[in-house]
Amino acid sequence: GWFAHVLLQRLGVARVPVEGGDDLLGAIATRDGAASRVLVYAYPPNHDAAPSTVNVRVPLPPGAPRAPRLFRLGAE
């Protein structure tokens, strides 16, 4: 839980609409000046569920200054 809170603190101040998802799978996108940030979450349906793969597509704005950085947080 603590690491999830750390990632939430890195989000920007202005929320951007995101399409798709449900209660267990979705994303939060924000902007803060010229910076854009996306937090994608995929909760397992229960604690005993086997890990699954989730494919995510994030279109970058034209002229994005650099490649995105990825931070992954999991149970292990």
List descriptors.
single chain, 76 residues
Could you give a quick summary of the protein structure above?
Helices cover 11% and strands 25% of the residues.
Secondary structure blueprint with pairings:
Blueprint: H1 2-9, E1 14-16, E2 25-32, E3 35-42
Antiparallel strand pairs: 1-2, 2-3
Principal-axis shape: globular
Overall number of strands? 3
Radius of gyration: 14 Å
In terms of DSSP E residues, the strand content is 25-35%
Multimer state? single chain
Query: What class, by secondary structure content?
Result: alpha+beta
End-to-end separation: 13 Å
Low-confidence stretches: none
- The overall pLDDT average reads 80
Structure description:
11% of the residues lie in helices and 25% in strands. It is α+β, with helices and mostly antiparallel strands and 76 residues long. A 3-stranded antiparallel β-sheet has the order 1-2-3, with no helix packed on it. The radius of gyration is 14 Å and the shape is globular. The model has no long low-confidence stretch (mean pLDDT 80).
